Structures are given as C-alpha cells and as structure tokens.
C-alpha cells in the first residue's frame, strides 16, 4: 500500500479577513503558523515520514511545508516547488472582501464565483498591478501560463500535469510524499484521485492545517481517504470556511 499526504496551508491574513486570495502572495497568521505546527505534530505522532515534499511557489504553502518538516524532523528532504500547485486564480476579485462582495453583488453570485466548477470570476487586466506577470518569481515562466482568472475546471487542468509528471514517478518508486498547497489546487487533486463529478467536488471543503491521508493501491487508485485530527475540530474549521461570503450589515447577517 502507498500513502500520500495532502495538507492545506494554515490560515493566512487574507483568510482571516475573508478576502479572495488566489495568486496573491500573503503570509500566514499566528494562528496559521500554529495550525502548521499542529499538522506536523499530528503526522509525527502517527509515525509519518516523507522522502520528498511538493508545494506551490506561494509563501503560505512554502512556510507551511517548512514548519511541518521541522516539526517532523525532516528538514533534510528535497522540496519541489511548482507554480502548477498555486491556488486558483480569482481574477479581479483578488484582494477583495468576500462579505462586502456579497452585499454588493448578492450571496448567490459570490457563491457562484467561489463554488461553481466552470464559471470564471471577472478577469484581471495585464495592466493591473495585481497581475502576476509583474512578480519576479514568475520571470522564467512563459506568460501564456499566467492566468487572468480561473475556474476550478481550469485549476484541475493546470494541477494534474504536476501530479502525472512529477509526483506519480516518485510514488511508483515507493517514495513517501507530502503535498502542501492551497484549497483549490488540493481540491483539484482530490477530484482527480477520487474521480469526483463536478457537483461532488463543489461540496468538498478542505480545512486549514489538517492532513488528508490517501492510501493507494499499486495502480495508485485510492483505497481510503481520511483526515488526521479531531473530527469535531475538522468540522468546525470547515464550517468557518463555508460561512464566508455572507452579506453582512452592521455586523449582522442579512
């Protein structure tokens, strides 16, 4: 049996403030750092070790990876960074408050932007300072790969080549892998591994800082998927995340 661990980064400043994040490179909060430390402790307590780690080029995922490897005493293993594991790009919504957008455009529209499968948010313009083409970390990346907006469907298409070309060859060699990334890039992997329909993946939420363990057969087909950690705490964070994007007036829900 082959195991692989997926972990969503800890809470970020934009998560805390209910903002659309996407490719915006924001840091972890103190809570997010503690969530990453807790994930490392959970993995260590359950006897997990790794031969390699995969992460995005965004510091929230990189920092989460480093914290986890420090907690598990695995600082020495190779870490592979890929832009393909970046969060879904939220276009012109990046940096905007989800609750304020719900007031302006309605909760249903915000829900569609957040949870539809093939609908893209309004795109950025390349002249917008938020466009990642201006970020030095993408200097060597062909500009055609830098999105102006993405749907979850687009994100799946972007992520799966990383799985097939970079992660699978190591798994076939029985290497133990951890993938530390963002909500939608991990949902893309979950959809692919579990062969979920678009409707099924839309209702699947990944909490900050709780490892997802996949047990795979020799053909890398899932046998079992489960979260490490207290199920009540997992559900609590899921409800917190799903509660974002609600119209609020004077601090109260409409």
Q: What does this molecule look like?
A:
- The chain starts with a strand and ends with a strand.
- The strands form 2 sheets. The protein has a 6-stranded mixed β-sheet.
- The protein is an alpha/beta fold.
- α4 packs across α5 and α6 crosses α7.
- The protein contains 9 helices and 8 strands.
- The relative contact order is 0.20.
- The protein is globular.
Strand content: 5-15%
Task: Determine Rg (CA atoms, Å).
Answer: 18 Å
Note the overall shape.
globular
DSSP, total strands:
8
Structural class: alpha/beta
**Mean pLDDT across residues:** 94
Can you write the helix and strand succession as a string?
A: EHHEHEHHHEHHEEHEE
Helix content range: 25-40%
Beginning-to-end CA distance, first to last residue: 50 Å
Strand order of the largest sheet: 3-2-4-1-5-6
Q: What is the count of helical runs?
A: 9
Low-pLDDT sequence parts: 249-254
